[in-house]
Write a structure and sequence with these properties.
286 residues; alpha/beta; Rossmann fold; 2 domains; two-stranded parallel ribbon; 11 helices; 39% helix; binds NADP nicotinamide-adenine-dinucleotide phosphate
């Protein structure tokens, strides 16, 4: 691939669900890019892209990746964020498009540890002179439901806390498209990002079932059992935050917004499309 002219945009976390789409869309638009991952391996990135090993918690790894770059897409990581700010300032980075969280501006999510860690990162960049930060604030990523792949494949039933909790999950491709808008000059991308429709978790399970041609059922979990399950994958306080988020969604407080359509000029992608795009994750055996 010939390198497009101009200073490259760095996509950190370019193997991530959102990051990979950001990288691909920038390349498709002819934007000069560079990609990073903590431990990149050959064959993981499009041919011809300059790849760096960079870890947000390892300041020494940032200087080479940031060198000569004015714009960076990166994931919010509160550990060592002040060192990331300093490294970006020293390298002359001017714009950070930050994968943050809608919980920062969602009224009923205030105070929980997930929200406050994202807020801390937003604030650290916002306070840095010479840097403009554009936070991306999705509320519920559709990719959360990839956690249902194992039980769907194993026995066709998904254990769920608050199966009737209603959310508006967003396709990672839409978050990435908003990121690209932000990287190409749109500053009005900081509103709450959601999918185009509110659906119960139960209906999301059924939508995945329809995409793979399988009758998938739901088993309701009580709060204690759900806490035990979530705590296997995340610290206890984060598990508590997820349970509270689901309680809130069950009470009808997880909204749908038109922000994606306003920014992109086309409707946000539906969960039906997401399920079809990811059907392969939900079939076969592990
Ligand atoms: N789940 C939700 O509903 C929700 C809602 C709102 C916001 N969010 C935010 O969205 C994020 C998930 O986005 P996603 O699905 O695209 O994530 P993902 O597929 O899990 O990818 C995460 C990326 O972060 C990178 N990363 C992690 N730690 C890093 C570090 N120390 N230094 C550099 N890069 C690092 C990883 O890079 P490597 O390749 O090096 O591993 C990876 O590419 C969450 O972490 C949260 O902040 C999530």
């Amino acid at each position: 691939m010939a390198h497009p002219a101009g200073k490259p945009t760095l996509v950190m976390g370019a193997r991530g669900s959102v990051g990979r789409h950001v990288l691909d869309e920038l390349i498709a638009r002819g934007v000069a890019v560079r990609a990073s991952a903590r431990r990149p391996e050959p064959g993981q990135f499009p041919e011809g892209v300059d790849v760096y090993a960079a870890d947000l918690t390892d300041p020494a790894s940032l200087a080479p990746a940031f060198d000569g770059v004015e714009q960076v897409f990166l994931y919010a990581n509160h550990q060592g964020v002040q060192d990331v700010v300093k490294a970006a300032q020293s390298a002359g980075v001017r714009r950070i498009v930050l994968m943050s969280s809608g919980s920062v501006i969602h009224p009923t999510s205030q105070g929980n540890p997930i929200t406050e860690e994202h807020r801390l990162v937003e604030q650290a960049f916002a306070a840095a002179s010479g840097l403009t930060v554009v936070p991306l604030r999705p509320l519920v990523l559709a990719t959360n439901t990839l956690g249902w792949a194992y039980p769907i494949k194993a026995n066709g039933t998904v254990p769920l806390y608050q199966p009737d909790a209603i959310t508006a999950p967003i396709h990672e491709r839409d978050v990435a498209a908003v990121a690209v808008a932000a990287l190409t000059g749109d500053d009005a991308t900081t509103g709450l990002l959601t999918g185009p429709a509110r659906m119960s978790q139960r209906d999301q399970v059924a939508t995945i079932g329809a995409a793979i041609g399988k009758n998938v059922t739901v088993t309701a979990l009580n709060r204690d059992d759900a806490r035990t399950r979530f705590s296997r994958f995340m610290p206890a306080e984060q598990a508590g935050a997820v349970l509270s988020f689901l309680d809130d969604a069950a009470a009808g407080n997880s909204p749908m917004t038109g922000t994606v359509e306003q920014i992109l000029g086309r409707p946000a992608l539906s969960f039906d499309i997401w399920a079809i795009d990811h059907a392969a994750h939900f079939v076969g055996s592990d």
